[in-house]
Amino acid sequence: MNSEDINAVARLLSKPQKIVIIPHKNPDGDAIGSTLALWHYLKNRGQKAQIIAPNDFPKFLKWMPGQDQILNFEKENAQSKAYIDEATLIFTLDFNHLGRIGQVEPCLKESDATFIMIDHHQAPSDYADYMYSDVLMSSTCEMVYNFIEFLGDDDKITPEIANCIYTGIMTDTGSFKYSSTTSRTHRVVAALIDKGAENTKAHNLVYDTNTPNRLHLLGCALKNMVILEEYSTAYITLSQDELDTYGFQKGDTEGFVNYGLTLHGICFAVIFIENKDEGIIKISFRSEGDFSVNEFARKHFNGGGHTNAAGGRSDVSLKETVDYFSTLLKDYKTQLNP
């Protein structure tokens, strides 16, 4: 974030504001962690602030301090709209295109508030008045830490803020194993632990809270895995019937896609998950090395994200989606087998 924008934001926050903070639809650990961290920080500065999530978020994130104050736009629609209508300042975190927020999008497009974007995904759109965008960052949570530091307030990071930021960094870096984890990331994490982040507790609450249904669903997913050695690719499918059989809850499939990359010789892993309520196939892409799943998702599946982690969607059936995906691979054979 350049010094001119930092100074402008500092001036905005030096006055009372009505602030709304919004993560993307189907918020993950980085989205919830970054919005909660920013919310605690702004509240501690005496600002009026409200987080509005487009929809619900996974149970394994519902231990984070302040999570019970998040409004769900789907379920608390009138109250959420009232906050957005009155907002003078809107922070959008962990997304860079208004299409990522579902039914909240029309409300934001009608707002006269000043917009501030904090995000680390590729190809940002230009809706924000002030934009802190850095695709080299491990997570939006690391950027929120930097944002607080830019404003000269890193000494005001409380244990609550530290826990929220730590959780988002942990989840978006795959517990610090992804290539986006830099030496700076580790220094930030060390500082967060010094400021009260409970690293072991966060890891246990996020990763070690399985249910029998989730483990059975994982078994189903792994049984469904298809390995295409010719293309160094593995993909998983989960139908709506399979999700229903194992009592699927939001967040239950988190991390399933990564199992494909644990196989020797596989550099491209995908999971296709049927969602009959929305009439879509939700797709997650992961890769190792230089193969850009961001470009693949953008070109073929109305999605995007990072070089090695992206998402997309399809509006046709699960079978048609997988068949289409399979026909694409021949065009990428050289990239997948360098």
Annotated CATH architecture of the largest domain: Alpha-Beta Complex
Approximately how much beta-strand content do the residues carry?
15-25%
Count of strand segments: 12
Count of runs of 4 or more consecutive helical residues:
13
The side-by-side strand order for the widest beta sheet comes to: 3-2-1-4-5-6
Mean pLDDT: 96
* Helix/strand order, N-terminal first: HEHEEHEHEEHHHHHEEHEEHEEHH
What's the shape?
globular
Structural class: alpha/beta
The N- to C-terminal Cα distance equals 36 Å
Write the layout of secondary structure elements.
Layout: H1 3-13, E1 18-22, H2 29-44, E2 48-53, E3 71-72, H3 77-86, E4 89-93, H4 105-109, E5 114-119, E6 130-133, H5 140-150, H6 159-172, H7 183-194, H8 199-207, H9 212-223, E7 226-228, E8 233-238, H10 240-245, E9 268-275, E10 280-287, H11 293-300, E11 304-305, E12 309-314, H12 318-328, H13 333-336
Parallel strand pairs: 1-2, 1-4, 2-3, 4-5, 5-6, 8-9
Antiparallel strand pairs: 7-8, 9-10, 10-12, 11-12
Helix pairs in contact: 2-5, 2-6, 5-6, 6-7, 6-8
